[in-house]
Design a protein that fits this description.
Elements lengths: L3 E3 L7 H10 L4 E2 L1 H6 L1 H13 L3 H9 L4 E2 L8 H7 L4 E5 L4 H10 L6 H13 L9 H9 L6 H6 L5 H22 L5 E4 L5 H8 L14 H11 L2 E5 L7 E5 L11
Parallel strand pairs: 1-3, 1-4, 2-3, 4-5
Antiparallel strand pairs: 6-7
Helix pairs in contact: 3-4, 6-10
């Protein structure tokens, strides 16, 4: 079952936390699995749209994971707690709401037709259907939990932008307070990855490693790793997030257990 539930929003040090949990012997699944695994994607969407968590729970139990991170796993912390009574929750946070907003908005590239349709074609080749491959709908699905509408910000005028950014700040703060309010304090760690190993290891009841705490931000490499694993070879994906696809072949399914 799941032992560690990451409830932090995207861009709160989740890649660093994932690497740290790996060092401690945990096996985490997260946002990249949701985004690129059609079966997991559909199960999660049934939960997000209809409240049916059984499909997600079945897939998690079939897999080899005992930790969850990133969207949409993070927003299901209550369901995961109910299904995994011995699990603990880690709420990763940034130094401030403004720091989170700057990072979250900055990591999503501005809309262009090439990016949009390049990503759409890639996701179709990866096994998604119709609207499932629409990246804008994926962004909207996540935004309902923190009210940070990045496409609207990118398209806004200079006069409109401050109010939209303030909505992001408030959405972040409301989400953090909601998790603090709903998770029992003895099962919750509010954690900034800058704090390093000690609070994390004390909370999980494990020895501190002798290596430095990891600080990772390599979403691009994670994406390329998925491409290699499933025989999808990109023509080009620069740092800004431009995705174009050459081919997908030789894969007859997406494994539920991580490689």
């Amino acid at each position: 079952g799941v032992l560690v539930i990451g409830a932090g929003l995207q861009r709160t040090g989740l890649q660093s936390l994932g690497a740290a949990l790996g060092t401690l012997g945990y096996r985490a699944t997260g946002g990249m699995d949701y985004q690129l695994n059609p079966e997991l994607f559909r199960a999660w969407n049934r939960f997000l749209e209809e409240g049916d968590f059984d499909g997600v729970d079945d897939l998690l139990r079939q897999g080899d994971w005992n930790a969850t991170l990133d969207f949409p796993f993070n927003v299901a912390y209550q369901k995961l707690l109910n299904r995994n009574p011995s699990a603990k929750v880690i709420l990763t946070v940034r130094d401030s709401a403004e720091a989170w907003t700057k990072s979250y908005v900055g990591h999503i590239p501005e809309y262009t037709a090439l990016r949009h349709y390049g990503a759409y074609v890639f996701l179709l080749l990866a096994g998604f259907w119709g609207e499932e491959a629409d990246v804008s709908l994926r962004l909207k699905r996540a935004a309902q939990f923190h009210d940070c509408d990045v496409p609207a910000i990118h398209m806004s005028s200079l006069e409109q932008r401050p109010a939209l950014l303030d909505r992001c700040n408030k959405g972040y703060e409301l989400y953090v307070e909601k998790v603090k309010r709903e998770v029992p304090s003895d099962r919750l760690l509010v954690f900034n990855v800058k704090e390093g190993w000690r609070p994390l290891c004390d909370f999980l009841g494990v020895p501190m490693p002798s290596v430095l705490f990891p600080h990772v931000d390599d979403a691009l490499e994670q994406y390329l790793s998925w491409c290699r694993r499933f025989w999808v070879t990109p023509w080009h994906m620069p740092q800004g997030g431009d995705i174009t696809v050459r081919a997908k072949s030789g894969s007859d399914g997406w494994p539920l257990k991580p490689a």
